[in-house]
C-alpha cells in the first residue's frame, strides 16, 4: 500500500508512520517542519510543504492508495482571533487542496480527521455518529472540515471521517500534559469533575484506522474513542492511582477560564461519545477500559 500522511510530524502522525512502516507499507509524510531526525527508512520519504497552499506536494496525492489527513494547528493553546483563523485554515485549506489534487475516478481512500468536538458540550447525552452537532467553535470547525473531505466522493474516493477522542499515547500528546501536575502532587479533576471524557489508546486508534481502510464497505463518520468514556473525576483518580500520586487538587472552572480563555470551554465540555459504528462493524478494542490503558502507557516500557 502507498500511504500519504499529512501532518506527518505531529503526535499521531509520528506514531502512524512507524505503525504502517512496520506493516510493510510505503509511507510519504508531508509536514511543515524540517525532516525529523533519523528519518532514513527505505520505504519512507518526507516532503516539507505548506499544505494550505497549492504546490508540487500535491503530485504525491494521486499516487496514494490511502490518504491519512492529520494536518492542523494544535488547539492546545490560547485561542486568539488570529490563532482561530490559523486553526481553521490549516485544516480546511489543506483538505480542499487534497481533494483538488485527487485524479478523476480516484480509487483512493481518504481518512480525514475530525473530532468528537463535532458534538459540542453534550452533557449526559450518549453521543453516537448520528447525534446532532454542537454550536461552538470546534463544532462549527468540525462540520466545515468534514464537508470539505466529503467532496472527495465526487471524484470516486471512499471517504471516512475519523472523529477522534482524546488520543492517549507515549512520547508527548495530551497524556504527558495531563500527568505533569500529578507528578508534582498538584493533580485533580477539572471544574465539577462530572464532565465526560472521550479517550482512545494510540494502539487502538492506529488499529481502527487500519480496520477502516481494510473494510471497503465502511464510509462516512466514525467515532474513534473507547466504548467506555469516563468522567473527568474518574480520569484524575485513575491517573493518580496508576502513578502513585494523590488526585485531590481540583482546578476551578473560573481559574481555567482565566488561564485559557475561550479554549477552557472545550476543555470542560462533556462528551459521552461512543464508537457505535466501529463496534457494529466488528472492531475489537485492545484497551476498552481506562486503567489498563494508563498502566500500559505510564508504567510499561515502550514495545
TrEMBL record:
Which domain of life does the protein's organism represent? Answer: Bacteria
Q: Report domain DUF1731 positions.
A: 251-297
Any idea where the NAD-dependent epimerase/dehydratase domain is? 4-224
Q: Which CDD domains match?
A: SDR_a8 (cd05242)
Question: Which family would the database say this protein is a member of?
Answer: Belongs to the NAD(P)-dependent epimerase/dehydratase family. SDR39U1 subfamily.
The protein's name: TIGR01777 family oxidoreductase
